[in-house]
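Quick start: read one record
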Amino acid sequence: MESVAIPVARLSSGDGAMPCIGMGTAVYPIIESEITKSAVLQAIGLGYRHFDTASIYLTEKALGDAIAEALRNGLLKSRSEVFITSKLWCSDAHRHLVLPALQKTLRNLQLEYLDLYLIHWPVSSKPGEFIVPVEKENLLPMDFGSVWEAMEECHALGLTKAIGVSNFSCKKLDLLLSTAKVKPAVTQVEMNPLLRQKKLREFCERKGIDVCAYSPLGGKGTIWGDNKVMECQALKEIAKDRGKTLAQVCLRWVYEQNVSVLVKSFSKERLKENLGIFDWELSEDDLQKIDHLPQHRSVSGETLNLVSENGPYKSLNELWEDEE
């Protein structure tokens, strides 16, 4: 298979460099692990070196098996060639459970360390309730200070080269930064032409935090996403004018914002197509059209039951704080 060289972003905090495009492994409903393993091996052959998983995705073992096989058969020469991210689920987001959760993740992945470990959502839930959607009665406010302190300990132990967060607003990031000894290296958020995250990107640039985008196509086919990005007429017209696919337009737009991007496809052709974004640019007219598209959040957290009148976030506004 022809392999593509993918640009990397040197993390402003933490160690190493994060490839600017990575493969996500969140699939709902859950699929057979062999399908995930096979897709990851195909992706490695095409040049992907950045892989994103999470304990709640139930894909850590399949990803670990694929990396182990790639090392055995020479597709990868060493562990250092790949950048692996995983995430701490809400039920483990408690001071005493962070290290055990990461150790379990490492066992699943058959790795000695992660490149990046993220707090998945800014909310905790009852320990032991490892399910999605979360049961609303099990939602708990997160003690940002103590959970982040445990993440810092994982970093100090060398179990992860960098630590960060996911789905945090600017205000929640600022709260975490007020006590952090090690600042987040990365924040992972939904970002696409219909959710441009300008305020968050500007905040993170000032604070020296890298941004990584998930759901660049709107999360179609997942428990949380919808089709609004892929059905956007303006994006279809840009794609036609540029001789590209709509997906390539979305990925190129994210890349041009100096943001790394995660794509989720288990199709070899789509995986290959997603890498075809580095040898062309969007025009100023294209960028202006995108800047005027109405904002829409596909991943609200509502379908995950993270908003509840009895929980720490009683509305979507409290969770996201109007940062579109």
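The chain has eleven helices and twelve strands.
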